[in-house]
Amino acid sequence: MGKNSNNAKTTNINNEKFYSKFFQDLESSKKKDDLLHLFTKYNLDRIDREKYPLIEYTIKKEEIKKLQDEGKITNECKLNRTLAKDDSLTPLEKLLYSMIWKNGDLGKESHIISGILGKNEKDGIVFNQIGKYLNNKNEIIIDQHVIRAYIFFSKNILTKNIYNNNCYKYLDGYKAWIKDNKLFFENRLLIDELLYSLGKKMKEDN
Predict the structure, then answer these.
(1) How many domains does the chain have?
(2) Bridge partners for 92 per DSSP
(3) Over the chain, what is the mean pLDDT?
(4) Within-domain flag for 104
(5) Which residues constitute the domain of residue 98?
(6) Per-residue pLDDT tens digits for 161-172
(7) What does pTM read for this prediction?
(8) Are 19 and 204 in contact (CB under 8 A)?
């Protein structure tokens, strides 16, 4: 085994010890200030709230159904393509539709809308979970970094690439882990932020 291989192995071992110690401290936290201290102790970045401000509003099933009745959302939970030529839309609606169109994301909204309506999906599960959160703030938000961190916690496995099936496989376990801990559940957005930052670091380190 070459010198580089030994160095890589040592680095991985040190990284795993770092991640393990983080979760030990996380699980032994007693109050919100303990959770906040973990950002400093482990040099984890806070989420940029200018780029990702907290969403405080909710979207109810009835609001989606009303949009479906108006023909703006199809039965397949997608924005109706006729919106692209609907001049009666508000300037804000036109602007947001144009942004989705420009990013090539038309169609992805179906996963969020399905989540708002309480439908479970195997595909687009991250967006689906966002929809559930928009409908019910007791739900949680997930993404690839959060799931990567949770996989290490639950299985002691470092997974660089996270796919939709990983999110689907571990979502229920992650939800249960949050809901079974009063401190975690009351600070679920903070837990999401911690694991997001840790999971991102895991990907960069490995």
Answers:
(1) 2
(2) none
(3) 93
(4) yes
(5) 61-135
(6) 999 999 999 999
(7) 0.89
(8) no
